[in-house]
Amino acid sequence: MKVVSVEQRLFAFYLVPDFTMMAFSSAIDALRLANAVVGYEAYSWRAVSSDGAKVRASCGLTLEADNSVAVERQHLNGRLRPSVAVICGGKHIERHADRGADAWLRECRNRGVAVAALCTGAHVLAQAGLLDDRKCAIHWENQPGFIERFPAVNVSTGIYEVDGNIYTCAGGAASFDMMLHIIGRDFGEDVVSGICELALVDRVRDPGERQRLPFAQRVGVQDPTVMKLVEKMEKSLTEPMQVEELTASIGLSRRQVERLFRNELRCSPARYYLKLRLERARLLLVQTSIPVVEVAIACGFVSASHFSKCYREAFGCSPQETRGRAVKTPAARAVACASAA
User: Fold this and answer.
1) Which terminus of the chain has a smaller tally of CB atoms within 10 A, N or C?
2) pLDDT band at 330, cuts 50/70/90?
3) Dihedral of CA 255/261/266/270: which sign?
4) Does residue 119 come out as left (phi exceeding 0), alpha (psi in the -120 to 50 range) or beta?
5) How far is Cα 229 from Cα 307, in angstroms, rounded to an integer?
6) Half-sphere CA count of 196, side-chain side, radius 13 A
7) Which residues, 6+ apart, have CB-to-CB distance to 322 below 8 Å?
8) What H or E segment, with its residue span, contains residue 168?
9) In this predicted model, what pLDDT tens digit does every residue of 125-135 receive, in sequence order?
10) What is the pLDDT of residue 203?
11) Cβ of 275: how many Cβ atoms within 10 Å?
């Protein structure tokens, strides 16, 4: 394969404590394989930590850092300035705020350095003010809390998002897809195909592909009408639609829709809608410190008392008890905050 050489591009990977190894290694391997396909060191990389010390990943392994954030800020003025600064996030991302890293990222943007985020790394970019009025991707499990904390950010349901010179992905294998997009811009689709052959990847996924199937498809719903209505419900959890509104949108009567739901999901449309809202509430309770009353409002409940009653009936405990367990129990914290990557 004949490849036109391009100037070497340097990636600085900022490792946030508890970062997900799969997202990080997927990104690194995409660059490594690109070098193998093009036949020269087109890409290089280094690891960065807050203070230059080792960083522990969510899987328990530790990685050496090449630089501290302070050294990276100095490199922005010289020949060692990176082409892309990549935030590698993971579990408990909200606990690892770093003003120095925020300042470094803002300086990167001001000096024309692209910024990227893997897994929950979009949280760090948003905290630094780089995602206001921008599109981004973040793992589906972290979306509810992220949306509530950063309402000015446009969060997509796709596996990765490109908005100008800002790249974000949901983590896991999506890191590989996002890096293939960047490599494809530099070298074209032939090089991307060569990387996929070496990595035994059967296809390149588009950025807009959903991170997970709608719940209706995951539980085996076959009826297209039910699937369509469930998607409408999932998109309107904050301001729930009346069942009559939902049925009117598809030209069926309420009785017809209720019959379809009972056949497919063994419950009424209203009961299923409530279940979706309560699941969103549970994620907000364990991922954020938003007051319970605000969680209730964010999930379409008119009062905290009604929300608490419904929540207890569904989960066997109060919203306050769910939050308390998430704070006190390490295992619960891991479940609440971890990305599947």
Assistant:
1) N
2) very low
3) negative
4) left
5) 23
6) 15
7) 282, 285, 286, 311, 315
8) strand 166-169
9) 999 999 999 99
10) 86
11) 16
Which of 140-158 are b and which e, b meaning 16 or more Cβ less than 10 Å from the residue's Cβ? Answer: bbbbbbbbbbbeebebbbb
Q: Would you say 31 and 24 are in contact if contact means Cβ atoms under 8 Å apart?
A: no
Overall residue count recorded for the chain in this entry: 341
Reading the block at residue 104, the tokens are 């470094």
User: What tokens appear for 136 in the block?
Assistant: 């981004």
Q: Identify residue 264 by its one-letter amino acid code.
A: E
Return the minimum-mean-pLDDT range out of 72-86, 174-188, 216-230, 240-254.
Answer: 216-230
Q: Decide: helix, strand or coil at residue 213.
A: coil
Q: Angle CA(14)–CA(98)–CA(60) in degrees, nearest 5?
A: 55
* Distance (Å, whole) CA 234 – CA 220: 17
Model-level pTM? Answer: 0.74
Residue in the block written with tokens 């983590």: 171
Cross-strand bridge partners of residue 45: 11
Rounded Cα–Cα distance for residues 215 and 237 (Å): 14
Instruction: Work out the average pLDDT over 67-95.
Output: 94
Q: For all residues of the chain together, what is the average pLDDT?
A: 89
Domains of the chain from N-terminus onward = 9-199 (3.40.50.880), 215-337 (1.10.10.60)
Structure confidence at residue 213 (pLDDT): 54
Q: Which residue has the higher pLDDT, 79 or 218?
A: 79
**Residue appearing with tokens 């039910």:** 226
Does the pLDDT at position 8 exceed 90?
A: no
Q: What is residue 246's three-state secondary structure?
A: helix
Which of 143, 84, 144, 153 is CA-nearest to residue 116?
A: 84
